Amino acid sequence: MSADSPAPTPVTSEDDKPNMAIDEIILVAMVILSLIGVGIIRFYPQDAFIYWLAMNFVFGLAAMIAGRSQALEKGHVRGHLIKELLVVQSLHWLGSLSAVFGAFILLQYGRMNSETAGLVILLILGLATFLDGIRIGWRFSLAGIYLGTTAIIATVVENFMPWQIGIGFILIALTSVPMKLLRRLAGRS
Fold this sequence. Notes:
Number of helices: 6
Strand content: under 5%
Radius of gyration: 19 Å
Order of helices and strands: HHHHHH
Number of strands: 0
Distance between the termini: 15 Å
Structural class: mainly alpha
């Protein structure tokens, strides 16, 4: 290999950086939105249902943006072309929305209160996010796990906000910092 020949391409290429950045930004936004939602469950339980209903749309859109970004970069996401991926994701998130409306009906007919409905929707959202993460990337699965554990911790622990904030920061640190270090190391080789 001569001095003029280009260096071998690192495992993490420049083309992967925008996709990782989008995934990291979306993960951080999802954790922050989750923390806001937990605060709403704690201090304004009557509004929690509406908040988590809106988050179903926001998280679904975020997942579709990440999936589209990956499909545009690589031409596919785990075998799904961009059009197929968006159809599958749309059906996935519409299914989640259907379950949310089921919780709304239970709320309207007095089968559960607003706080419980908010927690149930948070569990539905956690499951939907986790399952879509299997398709588009591990960060979404991790965010789904965070959402599910948030619902459980909010139910079991009296003063749950410090726990959720701490877990949220740890989640962001564990996913963002190692990726940045890997990119730096890949750039040096």
